[in-house]
């Protein structure tokens, strides 16, 4: 048997034989394993458990597994995500990683490779070999601190007064520090799926947020033209 692990993995695939095989092998290597065969089933599992890593098929009977990836990445940024899919085109790989996956394995695959990839992602998440300690609820990027418990934002110790929408926008950006978020992702998260994709509301509120933050320091929000935005510390960046 391989090295034991205390990590929990959720396997999501609509083919029962694949779910059983992957679950059996991961359990053999010491992982605690949860399973689901649909997006709905995966969401039910996630409502009751906090797995350390998800192995997700892209093509599921009730939707695209990348939607689940996006939800998990927004709500649980420290959870590992590995796509397991028959879609092997370079564009599919890029799309999967853009949605926030840590790795992308194509079918057919070797079980030893899957186990090795899962372990590699978990090592990056927990470099000391132990599960991560409960995170500090305060999010920080450079000298900006967002406290979700107090619904408070400060820059350099000075309070920044934001509207609810500006706060939610900053919160989402900071949860995904360094990750480029598309306008569509931001619309879905901050305004909900009912907002028209062609709207310039994201650009408008990025402008509002920038003005308030930049009054107290350098610009931390990067524009990626034709795609979206990211927030990152300007120190040492190109």
Helix share, percent: 25-40%
Point out poorly predicted stretches.
none
The CATH homologous superfamily of the largest domain is named Response regulator
- For the termini, the CA-CA separation is 46 Å
The shape is: elongated
Radius of gyration: 19 Å
What is the N-to-C order of secondary-structure elements (H for helix, E for strand)?
EHEHEEEHEHEHEEEEHEHHEE
Helix/strand/pairing class, anyone? alpha/beta
Domain Response regulatory: 8-122
GO molecular function: phosphorelay response regulator activity; transcription cis-regulatory region binding
Keywords: DNA-binding, Phosphoprotein, Transcription, Transcription regulation, Two-component regulatory system
Modified residues (4-aspartylphosphate): 57
Spell out the key features of this protein:
39% helix; Rossmann fold; 8 helices; phosphoprotein; 2 domains; Arc Repressor Mutant, subunit A; five-stranded parallel β-sheet; alpha/beta; OmpR/PhoB-type_DNA-bd; 238 residues; four-stranded antiparallel β-sheet
What this model shows, in words?
The structure is a single chain. This protein has 238 residues and is α/β, with parallel strands linked by helices. It is 39% helix and 21% strand. It has 2 domains: 8-125, Rossmann fold, CATH 3.40.50.2300; 139-231, Arc Repressor Mutant, subunit A (Orthogonal Bundle). The chain has 8 helices and 14 strands. Helix 6 (164-175) crosses helix 7 and helix 6 (164-175) crosses helix 8 (201-214). The longest helix has 15 residues, at 111-125. The chain is elongated. The termini are far apart.
């Amino acid at each position: 048997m391989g090295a034991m692990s205390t990590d929990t993995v959720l396997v999501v695939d609509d083919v029962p034989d694949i779910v059983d095989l992957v679950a059996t092998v991961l359990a053999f290597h010491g992982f605690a394993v949860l399973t689901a065969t649909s997006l709905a089933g995966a969401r039910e599992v996630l409502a009751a458990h906090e797995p350390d890593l998800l192995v997700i098929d892209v093509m599921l009977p009730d939707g695209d597994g990348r939607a689940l990836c996006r939800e998990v990445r927004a709500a649980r940024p420290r959870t590992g995500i590995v796509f397991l899919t028959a879609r092997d085109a370079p564009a599919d790989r890029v799309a999967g990683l853009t949605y926030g996956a840590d790795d992308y394995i194509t079918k057919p695959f070797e079980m030893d490779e899957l186990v090795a990839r899962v372990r590699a992602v978990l090592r990056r998440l927990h470099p000391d070999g132990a599960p991560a300690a409960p995170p500090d609820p305060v999010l920080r990027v450079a000298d900006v601190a967002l406290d979700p418990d107090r619904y408070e934002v400060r820059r350099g110790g000075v309070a920044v007064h934001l509207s609810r929408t500006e706060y939610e926008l900053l919160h989402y950006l900071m949860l995904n520090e360094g990750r480029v978020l598309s306008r569509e992702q931001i619309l879905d998260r901050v305004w909900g799926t009912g907002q028209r994709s062609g709207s310039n509301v994201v650009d408008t509120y990025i402008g509002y947020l920038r003005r308030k933050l930049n009054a107290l320091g350098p610009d931390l929000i990067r524009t990626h033209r034709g795609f979206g935005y990211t927030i990152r510390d300007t120190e040492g960046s190109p």
